[in-house]
Amino acid sequence: MRRRIGRAAALALSAGLVWSFAGAGQEDWTGLFDGGGTTVDIDALLASAEGSAPEIGAIKGLTDRYWVTVAAQSSRERTKIAEAGMSIDGVEAGQVSGTADSEILAKLKEAGFRVVSAVRLSKFGPDDFPPADGVYHNYGEVQSALQGAQGAASEYASLFSMGKSGEGRDLTGIRFHRGGGEAKPGVLFMGSHHAREHLSTEVPLRLAQWLAENKDRPEVKRLLETRDIYIVPLINPDGSEYDIASGKYRWHRKNMRRNHDGSIGVDLNRNYAWGWGGRGASGNPGSDTYYGPSAFSEPESQAVRDFVEGHSNITVMLSYHTFSELVLYPWGGSDEPISDGRALAAFKVMAEKTAGMTGYRPMQSSELYVATGDTCDWAWGAKGIFCFTFELTPRSNWDGGFYPGAGAVETTVAKNIDPALYLIDLADDPYRAADGKVAAAPKPKGENPS
Ligand SMILES: [Zn+2]
């Protein structure tokens, strides 16, 4: 017998739950599942996993993967859940949600966690990119859209490739700047480290289009004339293409590396060389948060590293993800705040300002849960770059999760333009975010012949 854990039940469970972040350091969450009786019987669930062929090769399909909600009261518990190998994609009062397979579910049970719901991914309806979500850009469409933006602002814009993905796709970017060299303060925007987070491709892509279309507006022109803006909308093109290739979303998060055990993919946002392999990431290749065989083992994360190291004028970075509506800043891999007090003050102001513009919630990344090896810990820790992770719309899986539909694109893009302009402006001296001093003359950290 198939045990039914339907979407309706899960919806009912999550209804009425509200965020209750009450400020930095506060760990208590209110209004939780203390009623009991909602715990999923993992054994029954797993027993019901009727054999179904994986979709291709050894890739786990949707039949033995689940959208899981687990009760968790603190950052420490959320970190332990991440370490068991579950991806944490949503955090609500007293619980976290994300994807896991049966092996990880069993681990969570063994560790004493209460699994509130687990919905087989195959239960979620088919949502095609085309036609229902046709406004989203696949890899090929990203290339043409970037070419279009470049053509519309050719006095500023040029295209570049940050490198190649594992399957040989270009990590194409667009650069807006005036004049040669890299003497101007640089900003790097990136999207879709995670394959299924398609909205995080749209936001930087459409930022590029917006800059091109609005290049003659005085406030935009000033930034284009005085900054060096790099936008790479799709860091994980292989995974993104795989996610949509069947016409039905596969909930794929990682890249497409073939792991030694036959599983697929490394979590690119756990593969950076800062705290790599530590808390909140998984050494299990089958996990959605697998950190890879070594730091920077992946061509995509290597490309980001090499690009950043080759462009030392970059002072600000923004990595877009979905979802949960958050603005996150380092550290993610440590509960401690960053040690440079002046920088911390600037990070906080920048996070609060951009959160104010978007309606998202600002916080140190590890307040959510500790996760090592992410982009921004490396960018700040190794390079001193003011790096933010935006978790875009929606707020929860039940508002659309990774697949919020065509209707989410315009509104999400619209509210993310001002934060981008604000960060571009601050690239000359991010520290001034906190001390309010007047913009100084651009002071690049260094120059690199390109
Ligand atoms: Zn992500």
Describe this structure in words.
The chain has 450 residues and is an alpha/beta fold. The protein is 32% helix and 16% strand. It starts with 6 loop residues before the first helix and ends in a 15-residue tail after the last helix. α5 runs parallel beside α6, α6 packs across α13 and α10 runs antiparallel to α13. The protein folds into two domains: 117 residues, no CATH class; 297 residues, Zn peptidases (Aminopeptidase), CATH 3.40.630. It is globular and about 65 Å long. The strands form two sheets. Strands 5-6-8-7-9-12-10-11 form an eight-stranded mixed β-sheet, sandwiched between helices.
| Unreliable residue stretches | 1-38, 49-59, 437-450
CATH topology description of the largest domain? Aminopeptidase
Count of DSSP strands: 12
SS content category: alpha/beta
Q: Report the radius of gyration as a whole number of Å.
A: 21 Å
Helix-strand pattern, N to C?
Answer: HHEHEEHEHEEEHHEHHEEHEHHEHH
Q: How helical, in percent, are the residues?
A: 25-40%
CATH architecture of the largest domain: 3-Layer(aba) Sandwich
Give the secondary structure arrangement, pairings included.
Elements: H1 7-14, H2 42-47, E1 65-71, H3 75-83, E2 90-92, E3 95-101, H4 102-110, E4 115-120, H5 139-152, E5 157-164, E6 170-176, E7 186-191, H6 199-213, H7 218-226, E8 228-232, H8 237-244, H9 299-310, E9 314-322, E10 326-329, H10 341-358, E11 361-364, H11 365-368, H12 375-383, E12 386-392, H13 407-426, H14 432-435
Parallel strand pairs: 7-8, 7-9, 9-12, 10-11
Antiparallel strand pairs: 1-3, 1-4, 2-3, 5-6, 6-8, 10-12
Helix pairs in contact: 5-6, 6-13, 10-13
Zinc ion binds at residues 193-194, 197, 269, 321.
